[in-house]
Design brief:
This protein is α+β, with helices and mostly antiparallel strands. The chain contains 15 helices and 16 strands. The strands form 4 sheets. Strands 2-6-7-10-1-11-12-13-14 form a 9-stranded mixed sheet.
Length: about 475
């Protein structure tokens, strides 16, 4: 990238998971029959009046607080005027100079270093409908019109494509933790516009900004930014100028292309919506919502490290997904003695298997109590780690409890010293040459003897006991 640094800001639209729309009682439903969830209000019929959805307001306040924003006691809904076929009223209800919340931040970790990305504002607005172009015709579906959204605008604090992806992932994670949105990009519940410019390293002034609209996956956000950094760098190195424009990302080619050039910002002629009274929120109500917030990912991560003795990496992996963190905590609840080992089994065994099978942890055939049982069986000496992996595989395939698998397959570890001693003595008597070599200083042969015992017991002998008895007998 040479002597230029990127300056990146994200505008993210998050669809709130309310049952009904923002200003009417029509249902919010993905994949419903086109134009089936509509009424005079969301169709923009003359004389129809909007009424603010209280649950949407609560969700937006909740999100603002989770993102460390200042929630304002007074905010105002405005009309954002523009014409588009899927905007039935000819304006969108949004917020302009008096948004719900401002001045927040998210901390992300890029290459082990914490970076703070400030949030400029969070405001509420309604979604537009959807235009579908098919076979030379264009169709308008207004089911989505009026769906409650939050627009979350970051400051231009992001300095890399990876940082942008991590910010987005963290934002989605927080939304899921607090239960205000599923933030599923594939269903359009989280949409992202990227603003990006380059400037010479060490300079404070911003370069010419390019906007990339509607990118629909975290991976594509990173790819679009990487391509755009490369494109702009080439132009600037040749002494050219960046054109202020809006671009789109082509997933197939991995490139961005011009959608429209714009010399200046649109004039949306914002003005306060005369049909909606200003939103006045008491400090008590804000505090009440703040008190109802669950433990957020950053706090959870710190607790896992401090109280449960997990490594920072393990804690980070577990809190990166709400369902994953819940799975871990339930496992620990079933067997609180060894959270570190439980974390290892979830991260190293379970997540890989789920990934292979293409299923989420919430659908896992291995349940939290199963992981707890496996760790308890190892800790009690009932099975070895090697056998535990076999048990885990069987549980994943059949959903049977690990204890049941151990019983049915006769996999219980042999820890009886008397029994193991007999087997060890037999092995040593069968391999006098190796015994002699061991006693002459070739101590690496201990591995050979352990292997022979394990073979004779079909892997059931307790390795600790085997090693102990071998050391005793080979001393003589």
């Amino acid at each position: 990238m040479g002597e230029f640094e990127p300056v990146i800001g994200l505008e993210v639209h998050v669809q709130m998971s309310t049952k009904t729309k923002c200003f009417c009682s029509c249902r919010v439903e993905f994949g419903a029959e086109p134009n089936s969830n509509v009424c005079p209000v969301c169709l923009g019929m003359p004389g129809s009046l909007p009424v603010l959805n209280r649950k949407a307001l609560e969700y937006a306040i909740k999100a603002s607080l989770a993102l460390n924003c200042k929630v304002h006691n007074l905010s105002v809904f405005a009309r954002k005027n523009y014409f588009y076929p899927d905007l039935p009223k000819g304006y969108q209800i949004s917020q302009y100079d008096k948004p719900l919340a401002t001045d927040g931040y998210i901390d992300i970790k890029v290459n082990g270093k914490v970076e703070r990305i400030r949030i400029h504002r969070l405001h509420m607005e309604e979604d537009a409908g959807k235009t579908i172009h098919e076979g030379g015709y264009s169709y308008v579906d207004l089911n989505r019109a009026g769906t409650p959204l939050m627009e979350i605008v970051s400051e231009p604090d992001i300095r890399s494509a990876v940082g942008a992806r991590l910010y987005l992932e963290k934002l989605r994670n927080i939304m899921r933790y607090i239960g205000v949105s599923d933030a599923d990009m594939e269903k359009g519940q989280l949409r992202c516009d990227v603003n990006i410019s380059l400037r010479p390293k060490g300079e404070e002034t911003f370069g010419t900004k390019v906007e990339i609209k509607n990118i629909n996956s975290f991976r594509f956000v990173q790819k679009a930014i990487e391509y755009e950094i490369e494109r702009q760098t080439k132009i600037l190195k040749k002494g050219g100028e960046i054109v202020q424009e809006t671009r789109l990302f082509d997933e197939k080619t991995g490139k961005t292309f011009t959608m429209r050039t714009k010399e200046e910002a649109h004039d949306y002629r914002y003005f306060p919506d005369p049909d909606l009274i200003p939103v006045r929120i008491t400090s008590d109500f804000i505090q009440q919502i703040k008190d109802s917030l669950p433990e957020l990912p950053d706090d959870k991560e710190k607790r896992y490290v401090k109280e449960l003795g997990l490594t920072e990496y393990d804690a980070e992996v577990l809190v990166a997904d709400r369902d994953r963190a819940e799975f871990f905590e339930l496992s620990v609840k079933h067997y609180p003695k060894n959270p570190k080992s439980i974390a290892n089994w979830i991260i190293n065994e379970l997540l890989g298997k789920l990934n292979e099978a293409g299923i989420e942890i919430s659908e896992s055939p291995v349940k939290p109590e199963h992981i707890a049982q496996i760790v308890e069986l190892i800790d009690s000496g009932a099975i070895s780690t090697k056998i535990a992996k076999e048990v885990f595989e069987e549980t994943f395939e059949t959903g049977k409890e690990p204890k049941q698998v151990v019983e049915e397959k006769g996999l219980k570890q042999v820890s009886d010293e008397g029994e193991i001693r007999k087997i060890v003595e037999k092995i040593l008597s069968e391999h006098p040459a190796e015994v002699e070599k061991y006693k002459s200083g070739n101590t690496k042969l201990i591995g050979f003897f352990v292997g022979q015992v394990m073979k004779a017991t079909k892997g059931k002998a307790n390795p600790k006991v085997v090693n102990k008895i071998l050391s005793e007998l080979l001393k003589d």
